[in-house]
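Working notes for the structural subgroup meeting. M.R. asked for a predicted model of this chain before we commit to crystallization trials. I am recording the input and output together here so anyone reviewing the notebook later can reproduce the run.

Input as submitted:
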Amino acid sequence: MTARTIVGLLGLVVLFGIAAYLLFQIPWEYGVGGIVALAGLLLIIGTNEPDAL
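Returned structure, recorded in token form:
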């Protein structure tokens, strides 16, 4: 592994850690609702546009 790969992986781990920390700060119902809403939006946008992501 190169240094860039390691730094990139560490950056992703830090971002996921911050996201998990913030999700635990709100009631779980809002977290689940937000994830479901984002998944629904990506599903709708992804079917209408070829380059949604």
